[in-house]
Amino acid sequence: MPFTAPHASHPITTERMNDHCCVLSFPEYVDAAQRLAAALRLPCRAIDLHRFPDGESCVRVPSTPVEHAILCRSLFSPNDKLIELMLTSATLRDRGTVRITLVAPYLCYMRQDAEFYPGDAISQKIIGAFLAQQVDTLITVDPHLHRVHALEHAIPALRTVTLSATTLFGPCLREHAEPPLLLGPDRESEQWVRTIAQAHDLDFAIAQKDRSGDTSVRVELPSRSFKNRDVVLIDDVISTGRTLAAAAQQAMRAGARSVRALATHGVFVEDAEAFMRNAGIQDVWTSDSIPHHSNRFALAELIAAAID
Ligand code: R5P
Fold first, then answer.
1. In what order do the strands lie in the sheet with 281-287?
2. Quick one: average pLDDT of 1-13?
3. How far is the CA of 272 from the centre of ligand 1 (A)?
4. Among candidates 47, 38, 57, which has minimal Cα distance to 13?
5. What pLDDT does 246 receive?
6. What is the pLDDT of residue 30?
7. Which residue lies with its CA nearest to atom 7 of ligand 1?
8. Atom of ligand 1 nearest to the CA of 236
9. Ligand 1 pocket: which of 219, 235, 244 to mutate (most atoms <8 Å of CB)?
10. Can you tell me the distance from the alpha carbon of 138 to that of 132, in angstroms, rounded to the nearest whole number?
11. Which residues contact 56 (CB under 8 A, 6 or more apart)?
12. Ligand 1 atom 2: the closest Cα is on which residue?
């Protein structure tokens, strides 16, 4: 059924030639997709989406056939996106696409990696298997892996490439008059904090976190001095902001001069940002894995290098 494209300002390339390889963008992530296409020197074409009044999605792929499609879509607020991914992949394959690479800088459903209560769906495994049916290769950035340490173990059926945004954090760490003290709010963050600290020759500390609910978090600092230090909190994901807020409050209580935060993915659920600011965090910097005004690092070059 015909519909008016809701994103008329979104540039759509119209040449009717066979593309060997191109980046396909989705409306809410078009800027990042265009940056990736520019870094790869490939055309960027638009997937059009329409939401019917009953909530169903209508997907329209470009009419130009493409052999290798690079779908660039970060999977935050993922439920509709997963259905649209399925519709997109099936339509592309019907139209002759032989290879589909999904660039999903934020990878959803990675945190539920175990049956915490009898009957829990192990979402990581199930969504991983679903993705493996849709695409040939998945490229992602700092996926949240806890009990399973590598993405190829979490999603064995899929060819995966895991990148880390921590290599881009350097310039933010140099914005302090004195070398900052890096603080990881929990055990899982140690992998990133240690790497960054070693790369920039900085001190670091790892706190202990106890989460008793979605917004209920307690953080205990290790016994070391925070007095007059500029503290930079490092984490992979900011969701409700409670983890970093709790860590910031403790650091301020322990005498820190300032607290800032660096994270790869800024989901910022509801009041997360205000909550973090009220806890004393002066600046929050994130990558463009999820569009937000805190974005300081573009991932395009990092991802392009992996695709090349
Ligand atoms: C959990 O282990 C993650 O690394 C993050 O610390 C967590 O997801 C952050 O969640 P929130 O912002 O809701 O505290």
1. 203-206, 181-184, 230-238, 258-266, 281-287, 295-297
2. 33
3. 11
4. 47
5. 98
6. 98
7. 237
8. 4
9. 235
10. 8
11. none
12. 188
Which residues of 104-185 form beta strands (DSSP E)?
137-141, 159-163, 181-184
Contacts of residue 213, Cβ cutoff 8 Å, sequence gap at least 6: none
Predicted confidence at residue 15, as pLDDT, reads 40
Q: Which of 124, 214, 236, 294 maximizes ligand 1 atoms within 8 Å of its Cβ, making it the mutation to test the pocket?
A: 236
Instruction: Tell me whether residue 81 is one of the annotated catalytic residues.
Output: no
CA–CA separation, 238 and 278 (whole Å)? 15
CA-based R_g, the chain, Å? 21
Mean pLDDT across 277-281: 97
Write down the catalytic residue from 81, 125, 209, 227.
Answer: 209
What is residue 166's predicted lDDT score, i.e. its pLDDT? 92
- Cα of 255 vs centre of ligand 1, distance in Å, is 24
CB of 266 closer than 6 A to ligand 1?
Answer: no
Residue showing tokens 């992602």: 140
Query: Please, which residues bridge with residue 69 across strands?
Result: 22, 100
Q: Tell me which residue has tokens 């994901």.
A: 237
Give the distance (Å) from ligand 1 centre to CA of residue 264: 12
Query: What is the CA(116)–ligand 1 centre distance, in A?
Result: 17
What's the CA-to-centroid distance between 239 and ligand 1, angstroms?
Answer: 6
**13 versus 103: which is more confidently predicted?**
103
Look at the pTM and tell me if it is higher than 0.85: yes
Q: What are the phi and psi torsion angles at 306 (to 5°)?
A: -70, -40
Quote the pLDDT of residue 18: 55
236 CB within 6 A, ligand 1: yes
> Cα separation of 97 and 62, whole Å?
12
Whether residue 21 is predicted with pLDDT greater than 60 in this model: the reply is yes
DSSP state of 240: S
